[in-house]
Amino acid sequence: MTSSPSSRLSTASLLAPGNRQRGDYWCIPAGIENLLRCGGYSTISQEAVVASFVRQHVQPPAGADTLRESAGPTDFALMSDDEICRAFQRIPIPSANFGAFATVTNALLAQVTASRRLRVVRGLADSATYAQTVRSAIDEDEPILISLENPTGGFHIVAVLGYTPKVLDVYDPELDRVIRVDISASAFGSDCLILKESKT
Fold first, then answer.
1. Confidence (pLDDT) at 68
2. What residue spans define the domains of the chain?
3. CB 125 within 8 A of CB 109
4. Residue 74: its pLDDT value, please?
5. Interacting residues of 70 by C-beta distance below 8 A, sequence separation 6+
6. Residue 160 · residue 56 · CB < 8 Å
7. In a 10 Å sphere around its CB, with 0-12 CB exposed, 13-18 middle and 19+ buried, how is residue 162 labelled?
8. Which 3 state secondary structure label does DSSP give 26?
9. Are residues 193 and 145 in contact, defined by beta-carbon separation less than 8 angstroms?
10. Which of 41, 46, 92, 187 has the maximum number of C-beta atoms within 10 A of its C-beta?
11. Secondary structure element (H or E) that encloses residue 28, with its range
């Protein structure tokens, strides 16, 4: 499919105002909550995603000292969702990446729909390929999360709402607002996360 000069996700208005990330390092879970919201699935919260992720992918003693101070027990199987979320509200979530979060979220998503799943697109080698992948997702009306390089290092996750020939409109869950990103000047990660029709 050839991209049009501009396009917008049909449900983009659902993120204005959006759904702010509720943990310091929760841009992936907040992004997933917003992605699902745009896809019509508003029952899966970033807290549910964080708690499920921690139980499946984080093993104490990762952050055990901080956890002891903030939440008491460090056996995640014995902790409630609220206790896990409080424990990880101010510290980085170990092993956080699109693939692991997609697996956890798809298990939650399977409880509410059989028709949609998160898919990780990997190995996008350059900015032009990355931008074309994003444009194609928006043209297909598929909610998409992208990773943008932070000026201070690392990456930050944002939901794409639409594009023009030179700019992406993205929702930043940390700032809780829509920002414009210059496609040619932005440093993208090498993967993205798209809510797609499930092929069963």
1. 47
2. 7-197
3. no
4. 60
5. 86, 87, 90
6. no
7. middle
8. coil
9. yes
10. 46
11. helix 27-38
